[in-house]
Amino acid sequence: MLIPLAAKDWNYEAAAHLLNRAGFGGTSQEIEQLRAQGLEAAVDSLLQPPNESSSTDDAGMSWNTPVDILARRRELLSLKTDPAELKKKRQEMQKEQHGELRDLRAWWLARMKATSTPLVEKMTLFWHGHFATSAQKVKLTYFIWRQNEMFRRFALGNFPALLRAVSRDPAMMIYLDLQQSRKAHPNENWAREAMELFTLGIGHYSEDDVRESARAFTGYRIDYQRNEFRFVRREQDDGTKTFLGRTGNFSGDDILNIIVEQPACAQFIGRKLWRFFVEDEPSSQSVAVAGDLLRRHQFEMRPALREIFLSADFYSDRVRRTQIKSPVQFLVQTCKLLQTDLPSAVASEGAMTALGQLLFAPPNVKGWDGGKSWVSTSTLLFRYNFANYLLNGTAQQPLAPAPLQRAPAEIADITPADLRQNPEALVAHLAQRFFQTKPAPKENETFLAYLKGRGPEVSDETLRHLIHLMMSTPDFQLT
User: Fold this and answer.
1) How far apart are CA 471 and CA 462, in angstroms?
2) Residue 153 burial (CB < 10 Å; 0-12/13-18/19+)?
């Protein structure tokens, strides 16, 4: 049972924590506006936002336009007698797809930064990591975009409904070879991962359960004329199946319903939600509480998350500023704090690659490990250098393949001029913006010493160095 946070404990730092975890952070003004609403109203504004009014319009983009896949296949087939031309055409298609995918990544990052519905985008990112699907195998950016829109549509909705939709999603079907599964030769990839990675976890099913459930998903196909799911009844195994202790003529949906009914499913999803939003190493008690939340709310994400975001546990000292920012969170939140534009599509893609979280390219079907895996000696150095790039517009070392020049952040937008003559107030102001809390005494002394050592006149250059010093601390990597 989660105990609600006391009204007296709802303050600026608590509001900042909520916006960091349930979104991608915000400026001091945005945090203060959230605080002023009060705890329940603030949480509800994230869970029940107005209609999306993002400026990142996707109309007319090449990656959201249906592709005539059959025509492409016929074109490639016609070139089989000319190996050189066939190779050239494949290279052209690969280049086109890479460009579309890069633009799609930039579009999603821009949406995360500009959105009026940050929790929807944060949950879309959560589901992307949970139902990890790689564009490298899918190859069709249109299907990748469709999956992203599906995650957004179900972001705060019903998990069983999302699970059924994923089983019919063309990108997932290609990634796990479900469209190749036939009555005579059931493919077990989807059936296995649906239990191991998406719902139950290892130890809660047998190899017989994998084989039997795979039979239920035979006949799932992609209609490449309409670019959507279709069911081919003659390819389905409609025989009796025994699965997780039950016997019947189960369909794919029946299998998923049986899975969701297992107590382990609520625990599994609850643990992942708790780990994503609250703490990296949840206790068994926290996992049990999260699982109970999902069961009581019949796997509806919105009311379950509401209880979490209202709870004292979510705002406890053991939780705040203990999560390492994911590369995507680092990139988007840093730009928000600096009130500067995102890097170019090429630079953003290069940064995500270097930092270990390239959207639409998870390392495997398990997705990203997260937590401490986000940082190493090399990735920390890259974070420090890339923060400087976002702040000053120049890179201290090549950020391949990113361009090395961009417009610097506007210092006047970050620091009021009247604070430049008061080092203590200036450091406190910047610390509140970049850490949302007071820095440790030792770090505070370092910032003050740096500022005072530069003389009475605080130039833009001095402020840029001070801000970069703050962004190069371990604390800035935490959220």
Assistant:
1) 14
2) middle
Distance CA(30)–CA(48), nearest Å, equals 17
- pLDDT one-digit tens code per residue, 171-196: 999 999 999 999 999 999 999 999 99
Phi, psi of 238 (to 5 degrees): -100, 20
State yes or no: pLDDT of 401 exceeds 80. no
Dist CA 45 CA 15 (whole Å): 12
Instruction: For residue 203, give the amino acid letter.
Output: G
Other C-beta atoms closer than 10 Å to the C-beta of 308 total: 23
The pair of three-digit structure tokens given for residue 424, joined into one six-digit string: 């203590």
Mean pLDDT, range 424-442, rounded to an integer: 95
CA atoms within 13 A on the CB side of 238: 6
Band of the pLDDT at 55, cuts 50, 70, 90? very low
What distance in Å separates the CA atoms of residue 50 and residue 316, rounded to the nearest whole number?
A: 29
3-state secondary structure the chain: CCCECCHHHCCHHHHHHHHHHCCCCCCHHHHHHHHHHCHHHHHHHHHCCCCCCCCCCCCCCHHHCCCCHHHHHHHHHHCCCCHHHHHHHHHHHHHHHHHHHHHHHHHHHHHHHHCCCHHHHHHHHHHHHHCCCCHHHHCCHHHHHHHHHHHHHCCCCEHHHHHHHHHCCHHHHHHCCHHHCCCCCCCCHHHHHHHHCCCCCCCCCCHHHHHHHHHHCCCEEEECCCCEEEECHHHCCCCCEEECCEEECCCHHHHHHHHHHCHHHHHHHHHHHHHHHCCCCCCHHHHHHHHHHHHHCCCEHHHHHHHHHHECCCCCCCCCCCCECCHHHHHHHHHHHHCCCCCCHHHHHHHHHHHCCCCCCCCCCCCCCCHHHHCCHHHHHHHHHHHHHHHHCECCCCCCCCCCECCCCCHHHCCCHHHCCCHHHHHHHHHHHHHCCCCCHHHHHHHHHHHHHCCCCCCHHHHHHHHHHHHCCHHHHEC
Q: Are 311 and 3 in contact (CB under 8 A)?
A: yes
Mean pLDDT of 397-425: 83
What percent of the chain shows pLDDT beyond 70? 96
The burial of 284, by beta-carbon neighbours within 10 Å (0-12 exposed, 13-18 middle, 19 or more buried), is given as exposed
pLDDT at 57: 64
